[in-house]
Design a protein that fits this description.
By secondary structure, the protein is of the alpha+beta class. Helix content is about 35%, strand content about 25%. It has a single domain, classed as 2-Layer Sandwich (Beta Polymerase, domain 2). It has four helices and seven strands; from the N terminus they run αβααβαβββββ.
Length: about 160
């Protein structure tokens, strides 16, 4: 029985630390595009959050999926943005907006409900793997243009209390 050699954890950690600022910049640019367009189109959203996958989660995914070559290319959610809408109409508008404003590489449209512990029905998110649009040119974008960002879009159905 042969075992696949595990990736060099120290080497991946070093690379993760090197690219982290680039993914942070990618999130900032992508979020700016989304927030500006959401505001212009007057789409009401509940929240927008972002994160960069921490190293332990990244490494566990590499090992679990047996990714030997190019894990930074193969893992799509190193940078991630989650948009939660109040209503289905906003949810659908956000999906259209993403397709118009960003370069969509891949989509996973799920759109079925799950009940959360809050008692609200929250729909399983649609996932979009995106890159910055081709119109983003110049030195500000050169290093982040090849990077991918995952955008999750979900909507809540039910009463939402804002405190």
């Amino acid at each position: 029985m042969s075992r696949t050699k595990l990736p060099d954890k120290k080497l991946l950690l070093k690379r993760h630390e090197e690219v982290r600022p680039l993914y942070k910049q990618l999130i900032q640019e992508t979020r700016f595009i989304l927030e500006k367009t959401i505001s212009e189109k007057r789409i009401k959203i509940y929240s927008i959050q972002d994160r960069i996958k921490d190293f332990d989660s990244f490494y566990n995914e590499v090992v679990f999926n047996n990714i030997i070559k190019d894990p930074f290319e193969k893992i799509n959610d190193i940078a991630s943005i989650r948009i939660t809408c109040f209503w289905r109409s906003g949810f659908e508008s956000i999906g259209k907006l993403i397709s118009e404003q960003l370069e969509v590489i891949e989509t996973h449209i799920k759109n079925f409900p799950s009940v959360k512990t809050t008692g609200l029905r929250e729909y399983v998110p649609d996932h979009y793997i995106v890159k910055l649009p081709k119109k983003c040119k110049g030195p500000r974008y050169d290093k982040i243009k090849p990077l991918k960002c995952e955008i999750q879009v979900r909507f809540l159905e039910g009463e939402v209390m804002i405190g």
